[in-house]
Amino acid sequence: MTDDYVDELEANRAEKDRFLAEHRQSPIPPEEREDFDGLDYFEPNLDYRVEASVTVHDAPETVEMDTSAGRSVEYQHVITFEFDLDGESHHLHGYQQAGDDAIFVPFRDKTTGQQTYEGGRYMELEPDRTLEDGDTVTIDFNLAYSPFCAFSETFDCPLPPEDNWLEVGIKAGEQSR
């Protein structure tokens, strides 16, 4: 693992911790911020930075995702990522809402509800170009984060659909508080 990668990852984590502790839009309730001393993270690990093959869905299917508040929200299933991890092949679906450029990748794995937030974690990919079938992108699970509803019940967050439940433990990114 390169020192530059770890330094950048650690700087991003420190910035997020400062936001959660100090910013008025922090999801941590104001009365809990004084005692907040940062999130717990898995150690950076390049094994969880994988190259994924892209399948683009030209006619995206509308998917209704349940939310933490019992509602549902619509996303378009725009892309599928296929990758190898620990010698096994896996896939994750990427979603967008109207007007979004980022690809939303909510997921659950074998750490969910144990070492990580019970509602799953998120990643967002912002490709620097329009993706096409067969392209390869890096999915970095070290960047996996807990949604705001992990910090306060006042937030309503999409829950990862069953198609994005991985049968492997992803010991990367944010852990439970």
Helix run count:
2
Biggest sheet: strand arrangement: 3-2-1-6
**Global morphology:** globular
Number of separate structural domains: 1
Please state roughly what percent of the residues sit in beta strands, choosing from under 5%, 5-15%, 15-25%, 25-35%, 35-45% or over 45%: 25-35%
The end-to-end span amounts to 26 Å
Structural class: alpha+beta
* Strand element count: 6
Uncertain parts: none
Order of helices and strands: HHEEEEEE
What's the main sheet like?
4 strands, antiparallel
Name the average pLDDT.
95
User: Radius of gyration, rounded?
Assistant: 16 Å
What proportion of the residues is helical, as a percent range?
A: 10-25%
Region (Disordered): 12-37
Pfam family, one: DUF1684
Biased composition (Basic and acidic residues): 12-25
InterPro entries: DUF1684 (IPR012467)
Question: Can you characterise this structure?
Answer:
- The chain is of the alpha+beta class and 177 residues long.
- It has one domain (41-164).
- The protein has helices at residues 3-22, 30-33; strands at 49-66, 72-85, 88-96, 103-107, 121-125, 136-140.
- β2 (72-85) and β3 (88-96) form a beta hairpin.
- The longest helix has 20 residues, at 3-22.
- The radius of gyration is 16 Å and the shape is globular.
- The mean pLDDT is 95.
